[in-house]
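DM from R.C. (forwarded with permission)

"hey, sorry to bug you on a friday — could you get me a structure for this? deadline for the figure draft is monday and I only need the backbone to look sensible"
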Amino acid sequence: MSPDAIPLLLGTVLALAALSYVLYPLLSPAEPLARSVSTPLAMAAEQTPGASSDVDPVEAAVRAAQARRPSCTACGPRPESDAIYCSSCGSYLAGACGNCGTAVALPGSRFCLGCGDKLAAS
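My reply, with the result:
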């Protein structure tokens, strides 16, 4: 055996060991991943109150996400989940006044009822 063959043999053995380490979990007949991992949509359907078994879990998850999203009276639901102002028209979405902290329950309000501070961008 020549001295140049030893590193080649060692590299080949290490490469085969790494390949078997990576492929073993994929090829082993262990428990399927679908049974052990719950998808986010399935978790949302399980947490939705009043969800019945005949309701599509994807539909339930979409409706729950839309209910949590802020909505502008002029433009509709906003894509930003943490929006304070409408990104299209600048109207203040339901929340609290930044100046005095008074709750603003009417979406689209331009002025605070507590202090009169301007809430809208324009």
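R.C.: lifesaver. Residues 5-27 form the longest helix (23 residues).
me: no worries. The longest strand covers residues 71-72.
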